[in-house]
UniProtKB/TrEMBL annotation:
Keywords: Glycoprotein, GPI-anchor, Lipoprotein, Membrane, Signal
Cellular localization per UniProt: Cell membrane
Taxonomic placement: Eukaryota, Viridiplantae, Streptophyta, Embryophyta, Tracheophyta
Main location, first listed in the record: membrane
Organism: Ambrosia artemisiifolia (Common ragweed)
Protein name (record): COBRA-like protein
GO CC aspect terms: plasma membrane; side of membrane
Residues annotated as signal peptide: 1-33
UniProt membrane topology term: Lipid-anchor; GPI-anchor
A single GO BP: cellulose microfibril organization
């Protein structure tokens, strides 16, 4: 059985609340389940029935991250669904149902979980091998497929009882919900897909699932453009967490006390202006005492990326969702060098420099042209400074030096 979890929709509750609180100070617009930088990105969940049991079946559930630059960070994913009939879970490998539920009606063998709507999380690294399956036990962290395909998949196995024992009698689970740090996800109805094929470790035999359910989930983004940038900062959910104190979750933000109270700051410094080139220094600073960002990425939209000549210290990959336009880049750290963004403190930053060739028909320093149009950090759409915050500078200087401290907030 193969389930595609359709229209994985990202809804940022904190962002929606913020828009209401600041409706008299901000303009905000909403796009519906569409990211222009990643129009085909989705998270797909497959539910493969691989064998039958006396009262049900064994299934392998696999989560695939097909998004270009959004990954599921610690503390990882949480998946839940509602059984169609009176199914129970007899056993699990590679995953953990967090509640057993009421199994009092059972005599003798007791199911692993009797919840009508079970909630499952990934097992942690270091889980004993006899409890693991392939692609499990990563603490729910799923990487970006384009950067780390081997870790862009997460799986668990479960034995389902009091269920049908044939293709015609098994009923699909419903009301799937995928939760992860940052914007939440809601799932559309599952559909029957093509059976997944499984290859044995020695590569000599291929088997396939009996039934496959599939769902693909797309992001819904709430974008806020601020007229009063300081007001957006002051009402940031991160500030509230500092004032009210951290919650029980060890991943609750605890932000270093600064004027901006942002967990992440991106500094885009226009450093040098040559005759045929111009040079930018990018610095990402972590102000969150509780979070180390490993395998971070930064997506930047700027029209001059079509003429990027050289980049130092970061990796670079163009994102071209529309083949005729090359204005968006994904940047990430070099492994074992600066791919790990430490928590707030002296080592809480990474930096690189970018060298661009000038297109004389479009290049200008006026009206903020030299600064990005849009920024994402780890897939979170960041708030840009208002237009009047950008400098108005002449084009004539041959070796002009200046900088702007630009702040973005990631509403997670």
């Amino acid at each position: 059985m193969d389930y595609f979890l359709r229209s994985l929709t990202s809804i940022s509750i904190s962002t929606i609340v913020l828009a209401i609180l600041l409706s008299s100070f901000c303009f905000f617009t909403s796009t519906e389940a569409y990211d222009p930088q990643d129009p085909n990105g989705n998270i797909t969940i497959k539910w493969d029935v691989i064998s039958w049991t006396p009262d049900g079946y064994v299934a392998v559930v696999t989560i695939y991250n097909f998004q270009k630059y959004r990954y599921i960070s610690p503390p990882g994913w949480t998946l839940s669904w509602t059984w169609a009939k009176k199914e129970v879970i007899w056993s699990m490998m590679g995953g953990l149902a967090i509640e057993q539920g009421d199994c009092s009606k059972f005599k003798g063998a007791i199911p692993y979980s009797c919840k009508k709507t079970p909630t499952v999380v990934d097992l942690l690294p270091g889980t004993p091998y006899n409890q693991q399956i392939a692609n499990c036990c990563k603490g729910g962290v799923i990487s970006v497929r384009g950067l780390d395909p081997n870790n862009s998949i997460s799986s668990f196995q479960l034995s389902v009882g009091i269920a049908g024992t044939t293709n015609k009698t098994v009923k699909l689970p419903k009301n799937f919900t995928l939760l992860a740090p940052g914007p939440g996800y809601t799932c559309g109805p599952a559909v029957v897909g093509k059976p997944t094929k499984f290859i044995t470790p020695d590569g000599r035999r291929v088997t396939q699932a009996f039934i496959v359910f599939e769902e693909a989930h797309h992001m819904l983004m709430e974008i806020i453009v601020g007229k009063q940038f300081k007001l957006i900062i002051a009402n940031s959910p991160y500030l509230a967490s500092v004032v009210n104190g951290p919650g029980k979750n060890s991943f609750a933000p605890l932000v270093q006390c600064t004027k901006h109270m942002c967990p992440i700051r991106v500094h885009w410094h226009v450093k040098l202006n040559y005759k045929e080139y111009w040079r930018v220094k990018v610095t990402i600073t972590n102000f969150n005492y509780r979070m180390n960002y490993s395998q971070w990425n930064l997506v930047v939209q700027h029209p001059n990326f079509d003429n990027l000549t050289q980049i130092f210290s970061f990796n670079y990959k163009p994102l071209t969702p529309y083949s005729s336009i090359n204005d968006t880049a994904m940047l990430w750290g070099v492994k074992f060098y600066n791919d790990f963004l430490n928590q707030a403190g002296p080592l809480g930053n990474v930096q690189s420099e970018l060298l661009f060739r000038k297109d004389k028909s479009t290049f200008t320093f006026e009206k903020g042209w030299a600064f990005p149009r849009r920024i994402y950090f780890n897939g979170d759409n960041c708030v840009m400074p208002p237009p009047d915050a950008y400098p108005y500078l002449p084009n004539a200087a041959s070796r002009l030096r200046f900088s702007l401290l630009a702040l973005w907030i990631a509403f997670v």
